[in-house]
C-alpha cells in the first residue's frame, strides 16, 4: 500500500465527536422518551485515536437502568469504524428544588424530600420508608432518613442507629448508620418512653427536625410520616419543600379507604404523589400465592387515581425479622428484598420524571385556608 493510500485510509477512520454523539442517539431514556444525547447526558467526550472516553451523567445515582445504559453506550460506540476501546463513566447529578430561607441552613443541600405516608397504621409504612432509604443508598445515592412518626417512632430499632452526640453550631449532626443519616425523637427521649404531647407540640418537634438538623448534601431525604392526616402532615407540608409522596397501603379495603384520604390530603396540599406501594400483597408457598389480606387493593387504587404502582411486597417472615434485628430486608436475598429494590428504583425514576416534566413547579406549593 502506497503512502497516499495509507493517508486516505487513516482519514477515513478518523473518529469525530459528532460520530460518537450520533451513535449514542440510539439510546433512548424509557421514562423521558428522548435520546441520551438530546437530554444532555453525554459529557466530557474525549477521543484519542481509537480510544473513546465519555461520561453518561444521569438524573439520579439510583437510576434502575444505568447498567443497561452503560452496556448500550459501549456497544453503540464500538460499532463506529476505527474505534478500538470505549470507556464509559457513569455519573449522576440529582435534580432538586429551591429551599425556603427557613430551611436553608438545614436543607440547603438536600436535593429531594420524599414523604412516605399512609392513611392508617399497620400497613408497613415505616418498613417501606426504611427499605426505600436503604435501597436508594445501596444504588449509590446520598440519603437521609427522618422519623417524623412522633408518637410511634420505630426507625432506631429497625436500623440499629445510635443516639446523636455532636453539634455543628446550633444544628444537630445526625448519626450515620450504613452511610445513611438518621434522626428520630426516640434518640432524645428513649425508645420505651411515650411522646406525651399535643398536636402543636408534636408539630414543633417535627419542625425542629427539619430546621435544626444539619442534613448536609443529600440526593434524597426520606421522611417517615405518622399515620393519618393530622397536624404533623400539615406542618411538614408548610415547612419542608417536599418533592413528592409515596402512599403505602395493604390490599385490604379498610387500608385502601384510608389511603384514599391520604391521597386527597396531599393533592389538596399540592404535593405530587409519586405512586402507590402495596405491602403484604401475598404469601407464597411452593410457588403458590395466597392472598391473606385480599387481592389487588393497591393495584385498583393506583388505577383509579392514574398513579404508578411502585411495587407489591410479598408477606415474608424475613421482613419482620430483619426489621426487629435492625438489618433492613432490602440488603438481603429473597423476593421481598428484590421487590423493595425494584420499588426504590421506581421511586427514583418517578422523581426524575417529575423534575423533567414539571421543572421548577416543584419548588413551592400553596396551602389555602378557607373560612367557615
By CATH, the topology of the largest domain is Rossmann fold
Total number of helices = 13
Please identify the top-level CATH class of the largest domain: Alpha Beta
Structural class: alpha/beta
Major sheet attributes: 8 strands, mixed
Assembly classification: single chain
Please, how many domains?
2
Rg calc: 24 Å
Q: What percent strand?
A: 15-25%
Strand order of the largest sheet: 10-11-7-12-6-13-14-17
What's the CATH superfamily of the largest domain, by name? P-loop containing nucleotide triphosphate hydrolases
What portion of residues is helical? Answer: 25-40%
What global shape is seen? globular
Any descriptors?
372 residues, 8-stranded mixed β-sheet, Rossmann fold, GMP Synthetase, Chain A, domain 3, 2 domains, 22% strand, alpha/beta, 3-stranded mixed β-sheet
Note down, in words, how this protein is organized.
The structure is a single chain. The protein is of the alpha/beta class. The chain has 13 helices and 17 strands. Helix 5 crosses helix 13 (335-358) and helix 8 packs parallel to helix 9 (231-239).
Q: Nutshell version of this structure?
A:
37% of the residues lie in helices and 22% in strands.
Topology:
Layout: H1 3-12, H2 17-24, E1 28-29, E2 34-35, E3 42-48, E4 51-58, H3 66-78, E5 85-92, H4 104-107, E6 110-117, H5 125-138, E7 143-147, H6 155-159, E8 166-168, E9 171-173, E10 176-177, E11 180-184, H7 186-189, H8 199-211, E12 218-224, H9 231-239, E13 244-249, H10 253-268, E14 273-278, E15 283-285, E16 288-290, H11 297-304, E17 309-312, H12 317-324, H13 335-358
Parallel strand pairs: 4-5, 6-12, 6-13, 7-11, 7-12, 13-14, 14-17
Antiparallel strand pairs: 1-2, 3-4, 8-9, 10-11, 15-16
Amino acid at each position: 500500500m502506497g503512502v497516499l493510500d495509507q493517508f486516505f485510509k487513516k482519514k477515513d477512520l478518523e473518529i469525530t465527536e459528532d460520530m460518537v454523539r450520533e451513535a449514542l442517539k440510539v439510546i433512548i431514556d424509557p421514562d423521558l422518551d428522548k435520546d441520551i444525547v438530546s437530554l444532555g447526558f453525554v459529557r466530557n467526550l474525549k477521543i484519542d485515536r481509537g480510544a473513546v472516553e465519555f461520561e453518561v451523567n444521569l438524573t439520579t445515582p439510583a437510576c434502575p437502568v444505568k447498567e443497561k445504559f452503560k452496556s448500550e453506550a459501549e456497544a453503540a460506540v464500538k460499532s463506529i469504524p476505527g474505534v478500538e476501546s470505549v470507556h464509559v463513566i457513569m455519573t449522576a447529578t440529582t435534580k432538586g428544588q429551591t429551599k425556603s430561607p427557613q430551611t436553608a441552613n438545614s436543607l440547603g443541600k438536600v436535593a429531594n424530600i420524599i414523604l412516605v405516608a399512609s392513611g392508617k397504621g399497620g400497613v408497613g409504612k415505616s418498613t417501606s420508608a426504611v427499605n426505600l432509604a436503604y435501597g436508594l443508598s445501596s444504588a449509590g445515592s446520598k440519603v437521609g432518613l427522618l422519623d417524623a412518626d412522633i408518637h410511634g417512632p420505630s426507625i432506631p430499632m429497625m436500623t440499629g442507629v445510635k443516639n446523636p452526640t455532636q453539634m455543628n453550631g446550633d444544628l444537630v449532626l445526625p448519626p450515620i448508620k450504613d452511610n445513611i443519616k438518621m434522626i428520630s425523637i426516640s434518640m432524645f427521649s428513649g425508645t420505651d418512653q411515650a411522646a406525651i404531647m399535643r398536636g402543636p407540640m408534636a408539630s414543633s418537634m417535627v419542625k425542629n427536625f427539619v430546621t435544626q438538623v444539619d442534613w448536609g448534601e443529600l440526593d434524597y431525604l426520606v421522611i417517615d410520616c405518622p399515620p393519618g392526616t393530622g397536624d404533623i402532615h400539615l406542618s411538614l407540608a408548610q415547612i419542608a419543600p417536599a418533592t413528592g409522596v409515596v402512599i403505602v397501603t395493604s390490599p385490604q379495603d379498610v387500608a385502601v379507604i384510608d389511603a384514599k384520604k391520604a391521597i386527597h390530603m396531599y393533592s389538596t396540599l399540592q404535593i405530587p404523589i409519586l405512586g402507590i406501594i402495596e405491602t403484604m400483597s401475598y404469601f407464597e408457598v411452593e410457588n403458590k400465592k395466597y392472598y391473606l389480606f385480599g387481592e389487588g387493593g393497591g393495584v385498583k387504587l393506583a388505577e383509579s387515581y392514574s398513579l404508578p404502582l411502585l411495587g407489591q411486597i410479598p408477606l415474608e417472615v424475613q421482613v419482620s425479622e430483619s426489621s426487629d434485628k435492625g438489618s433492613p430486608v432490602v440488603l438481603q436475598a429473597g423476593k421481598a428484598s428484590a421487590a423493595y429494590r425494584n420499588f426504590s428504583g421506581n421511586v427514583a425514576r418517578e422523581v426524575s420524571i417529575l423534575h423533567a416534566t414539571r421543572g421548577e413547579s416543584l419548588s413551592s406549593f400553596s396551602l389555602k385556608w378557607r373560612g367557615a
